[in-house]
Amino acid sequence: MWDDVHAGKSGGVLEEDPVGKLKVYVYEMPRKYNLNLLAKDSRCLHHMFAAEIFMHQFLLSSAVRTLDPEEADWFYTPAYTTCDLTPQGFPLPFRAPRIMRSAVHYVATTWPYWNRTGGADHFFLAPHDFGACFHYQEERAIERGVLPVLRRATLVQTFGQRNHPCLQDGSITIPPYANPHKMEAHLISPATPRSIFVYFRGLFYDMGNDPEGGYYARGARAAVWENFKDNPLFDISTEHPATYYEDMQRAIFCLCPLGWAPWSPRLVEAVVFGCIPVIIADDIVLPFADAIPWEQISVFVAEEDVPRLDSILASIPLDDVIRKQRLLASPAMKQAVLFHQPARPGDAFHQILNGLARKLPHRKDVFLEPGDSGVDWNQGLESDLKPW
To answer: Name one GO molecular function term (predicted).
Structure first.
């Protein structure tokens, strides 16, 4: 089991085998909730929200799957809410909650299991920018809050920020999807010198959505650019070169600042390529925080301290840098943040299952009294209540 020895001294990743510790029943849903959406636009297999698709595929052949719902510990509803895309390839925020609400209603009216607990023994993948608040803009996400029909369920989501309306107690925070095969194809010799001190590629301003430049990333990315664009220790740019993955393997520190949401695939890429993540996102809840020793492999910089980023990083003792790099070199560390196909022991799929297993047995109070529905189907934003 995970204990202080493992967490504090070895820097190891939780490598429990979840098989035998839980049973999951996978609902068979009409194709309109998943496979038809995927057939309509296959881009959702490749974007950073794709964990909801691959989790479904994994569970169908997993040893934890049970075909007998009466013996299930958990129930899983495969609805691909991030697979209904704009022409630019982004999930439609007004469609996602309608898809999920419709899927939950179908489950509740087709099987008896939802109604026993109001969904408290069900889990849902919600890899949206702000999880089950289903919107990429924080103000709009907070306005909706966690979709009301999901408030008794366990949410498995990319978003995590302490004391935030879009993170409910008991949620399991997961890494975003980053293609393991694509990254593997760009591996270079581990003996390659790390000649770049600080590396970052991405937006500093989102002029399309935040023309005044102060709201995006709460100003943290703008502060990086304004303070360090001419600093020779900082290799930062909006350009995304073909050598992006190779460059990360030549860097000591990789910046992982918040954007519209606190998280991005850069965190996964940094771990995989052994580049020390510099996490700039106040109050972030990191993926599998009970299994991955983030404090030991990362550097945390408060958003207000970004102007001192150069002195903060330069003052880290060399021994600490080497220690973090050695921990990042662990195959188990990289495995835990990746959704492999096919799955591998200890990878992100298994970390999710371990998280669900640690929530067992269910408390007796998850079961509803006769006559208590547990869900108010009329609760929520008027736009979300429209049929899908």
So the answer is: glycosyltransferase activity
| Confidence (pLDDT) at 119 | 96
Where in the sequence is the domain holding 40, given as residue range(s)?
Answer: 24-177+345-384
What DSSP designation does 284 have?
Answer: B
Q: 330 in a domain, yes or no?
A: yes
Distance, CA of 222 to CA of 205 (rounded, Å): 6
Cα separation, 134 vs 123, whole angstroms: 16
Check whether residue 229 and residue 374 sit in a common domain: no
Q: Is residue 16 part of a domain?
A: no
What's the pLDDT tens digit per position in 129-159?
A: 999 999 988 999 999 999 999 999 999 999 9
Whether residue 281 contacts residue 221, with contact meaning beta carbons closer than 8 Å, is answered with: no
Helix (H/G/I), strand (E/B), else coil: 115: helix
Same domain, yes or no: 185 and 333:
yes
177-195 residue pLDDT tens: 999 999 999 999 999 999 9
Residue 17 belongs to some domain of the structure: no
Q: Distances from the Cα of 61 to the Cαs of 56, 65, 86, 127, 176, in angstroms?
A: 9, 7, 31, 22, 22
Interhelix angle for 348-357 vs 51-61, to 10°?
70
Tally of domains in the chain? 2
Joined together, the tokens standing for residue 73 give 């510990």
